[in-house]
Design brief:
Chain B: It comes from Methanocalculus chunghsingensis. The complex is a heterodimer of chains A (about 120) and B (about 180). By secondary structure, chain A is mainly α. Helix content of chain A is about 85%, strand content about 0%. Chain B is α+β, with helices and mostly antiparallel strands and about 180 residues long. Classes of the chains: A mainly alpha (about 120), B alpha+beta (about 180). Chains A and B meet through helix 1, helix 2, helix 3 and helix 4 of A and helix 4, strand 1, helix 5 and strand 2 of B.
Chain lengths: ~120, ~180
C-alpha cells in the first residue's frame, strides 16, 4: 500500500523533471530557461524525495530496522539543502546574467534596465 | 557567550539528526553522543561569529522554527504546486510574456527579505533578479506578466501569489 503511494510520488516527480528538461529546449532566453530548469526540477526532486521518505517510513514500521530511519532523515535533510541552495543559486545566475548585459529578450516590461540606465 | 551557546546547540542537533538510529540510548549510541558533543564545541567556537551575526536571537525561539517548518510544508508547497502546473502548461504551449517588474516588500529585516526572495525564487514563474538595498524592493522576473501589472511602477508582493498571504507569513516568522 505505502509502496504504491511512494511509487506514485516518484512517477509525478519524474514527469515534472522531464517537463523541466523539455522547457530548457523550448524557452527563448536565459531567464525563462532558468524558470524551467531550476524550479520545475526542484519540485520534481521534492516529489521523488517524498517517495523515498514514504518508502522508508513504510519499511521502518514494517521491519523496525534502524537503517530506514537513517535513510528517511538523510533524504529530508537533502531536500532542505536543495531548496535553499537552488533558490540562492538560480538568483545568483540571473543576477550575474543581468549584470553582464544579457537582457530578457522577448520582454513586455523591464524595470531593472530602466533603473540601470538612469544611474 | 549566548551566541556561542546557540551555535553549539544548533551544531549538536544537526549531528544528532544525521546519526539517529545508531544505538540504544533513546536513538543514539554512547560514542556518537560523545563525538557529537566534541564536534559541536569545536564548530561553535570556530563559527559563532558567522552563524549568529547579530546580537538578536529572535530565530532561536522554537515557536518560530516550528512556524517556519509549517510555512514550508503547507502554504509554500501549495503555491509551488499551483505555479508548477502553470509553468508545465507553458512549457507545452510555449505561450510566454516575460518581463522584469519592481516589487515592494515592506520587510524590516534582512532575514525577512532573504526568506521572501527565496520564496519568490522557489515558486516557478517568478525569479528574483536583483534587490534595491535602500528601499528593500525586489526586481522580479515573471514568466508571464499579467496585463494589469505591465503599466504599474511597482507591485505589491502579495500579488505574486494566489492562495496565501506569503509576505504576512514571513513577517510573522522573521520579524
Amino acid at each position: 500500500m505505502i509502496t504504491t503511494a511512494a511509487l506514485i510520488c516518484i512517477v509525478i516527480g519524474v514527469i515534472f523533471n522531464a517537463l523541466g528538461a523539455i522547457g530548457i529546449l523550448r524557452f527563448p532566453d536565459v531567464y525563462t530557461r532558468l524558470h524551467a530548469e531550476t524550479k520545475m526540477t526542484t519540485f520534481g526532486t521534492i516529489f521523488v524525495s517524498l517517495g523515498v521518505i514514504l518508502y522508508a517510513a513504510g519499511m521502518l514500521t514494517g521491519t523496525g530496522d534502524a537503517q530506514y530511519l537513517t535513510l528517511g532523515i538523510h533524504t529530508a535533510i537533502a531536500v532542505i539543502a536543495l531548496a535553499f541552495t537552488n533558490a540562492t543559486g538560480s538568483h545568483a545566475i540571473a543576477r550575474a546574467a543581468h549584470r553582464s548585459g544579457v537582457k530578457p529578450d522577448p520582454a513586455v516590461v523591464d524595470r531593472l534596465s530602466e533603473v540601470k540606465r538612469r544611474d | 557567550m549566548i551566541r556561542l551557546l546557540a551555535t553549539m546547540v544548533a551544531a549538536f542537533v544537526a549531528y544528532l539528526l544525521l546519526t539517529a538510529g545508531s544505538g540504544d540510548i533513546l536513538l543514539w549510541s554512547g560514542p556518537e553522543l560523545v563525538a557529537g558533543a566534541i564536534i559541536a564545541i569545536i564548530v561553535g567556537i570556530t563559527s559563532y561569529r558567522i552563524f549568529c551575526r547579530s546580537e538578536n536571537l529572535r530565530m532561536a525561539n522554537p515557536l518560530r522554527i516550528l512556524l517556519l517548518l509549517v510555512y514550508a510544508a503547507i502554504p509554500l508547497l501549495i503555491e509551488m504546486a499551483r505555479a508548477n502546473i502553470d509553468v508545465a502548461i507553458r512549457v507545452i504551449t510555449g505561450r510566454v510574456h516575460p518581463g522584469i517588474i519592481r516589487v515592494r516588500t515592506g520587510m524590516k529585516t534582512d532575514l525577512g527579505l532573504l526568506l521572501l526572495a527565496n520564496s519568490i525564487t522557489l515558486t516557478p514563474g517568478t525569479l528574483s533578479v536583483d534587490v534595491d538595498e535602500e528601499s528593500r524592493d525586489l526586481y522580479v522576473h515573471l514568466i508571464n506578466v499579467p496585463e494589469a501589472l505591465r503599466t504599474e511602477k511597482s507591485v505589491d508582493s502579495r500579488e505574486l501569489f494566489t492562495f496565501f498571504n506569503i509576505p504576512g507569513w514571513i513577517r510573522r516568522i522573521a520579524e
